[in-house]
Amino acid sequence: MLHDAAVKLGPWVWWILGIVLLVAELAVPGVFLIWIGMAAIVIGALSLLLWDAGLWVWQVQLLLFAVLSLAFALAGRRFYAGRGQSSDEPLLNRRSESLVGRTATLHEPITDGRGRIRLDDTWWTVMGPDLPAGTRVRVVAASGRDLTVEPA
Q1: What is the per-residue pLDDT across 88-98, written as a single tens digit (0 to 9) for each?
Q2: Are 111 and 74 members of one domain?
Q3: Which of 21, 85, 121, 131 sits a CA distance of 20 to 30 A from 4?
Q4: What's the predicted TM-score (pTM) here?
């Protein structure tokens, strides 16, 4: 059944497959199906030119499709790997790291290496040397939600 449909449609099978894959990329974004769809469209274009050639059998088409899919996927990965590396706000969405260098007053004393401060609208757990409440501290490092402080 599929073989009969492929024979009747001829080179257009590759175009249909390519368009289906490109539409699937829109439905399930991941920037992967686009490369396979592009490979199918290239094979479709070659099929329009070479359909009657004796060497353009289905095995050659599938092999070339696999090679082109891999080549396009690797080229696409290389193309997108270098994009978006620099940012005007490198600490965006890394709030604790953006607090390094700020100073605050200890709300709760640091005992056994742990205490609390308030910066802006948030209470933060801090780690550092034992210090009494009311001491000015400077944030020197961030690890997850814990800040490391030292006396300012």
Answers
A1: 777 777 888 88
A2: no
A3: 21
A4: 0.53
